[in-house]
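WARN no homologs supplied; continuing
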Amino acid sequence: GGSRSAVGRIPSAAPCSGIWGSSPSDVWGINDWGGAHHWNGTEWTRASPGAAGPLADVHGTGPDDVWTAGETGYGANPTLFHWDGRAWSPFVAGEVSCSVRAIRAFAPDEAWAVCGPDVLHWNGSAWRWDHTEPFVLHAIWGASPDDLWVAGEDGHLAHRDGTTWSGPTCMPAGPWDLEALWGFPDGDVWAAGALGTVLRLRR
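OK structure emitted
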């Protein structure tokens, strides 16, 4: 059911690596060349953050609260870029050296990201290290900061209940990496990864 319509191509030859929007007239697309484009309901316009490498994810809470980030050079601190409705601003997470793979934002002073084996937290003024897992993380999702999931290598997952991280749990996915997470506030969480692996978690 429903209908589909083309809204034109993002004006870049780079492969798209992520998309997120707060409304039909506020959509962001990012790409492997560090570029970002914004859809205003009529057309795509370039509004790149100035990233030095590929962007991996984009997420936000509204037109004036959007985050994006991606790969950094070897041994470099990750830089996450914030859109305030007018311009991008860079914020360096100086406590770790890794590339950001995924972001989840809940409020202007509450966002989370995964970077190598580390979990980063935005407190409204700075990105700080929060937690380290014994495996590389690829995905993050949460219904709230008190119900946060991360997933990554070899089918591993971990959960934060607001104060404490539990896990890692190795799910029966075989040795396959988990690359994506999504869920619902009732505790129904889905994970997907290599070779068509799909897991369903119920709490």
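The two ends are 31 Å apart (CA to CA).
OK
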